[in-house]
Amino acid sequence: MGCLGILINAGWTSKQAIMWNIILNLLAYIGVAAGVALGSINEDFELYGTCVIAGAFIYIGMTSMLP
Q1: What are the residues whose beta carbons fall under 8 Å from the beta carbon of 8, sequence distance 6 or more?
Q2: Distance (Å, rounded) from C-alpha 50 to C-alpha 23?
Q3: Per-residue model confidence as pLDDT tens digits over 14-26
Q4: Would you report the helix, strand and coil content of the chain in percent, each value rounded to 5?
């Protein structure tokens, strides 16, 4: 709902915003499936992938808290 609200607030029509919101949600599921597949193939990928993702969340959190 947050992404949908941002798109509508940016001036997109409701139909465009809903369509792109569905596409973005489907891409998230595809990314999860790819990550799980790669993690099951190689254990090193799971370790480094977890570190990269954790670092990205820390970066996003810190840039949101510190102006």
Answers
A1: 14, 17
A2: 25
A3: 999 999 999 989 9
A4: 90, 0, 10
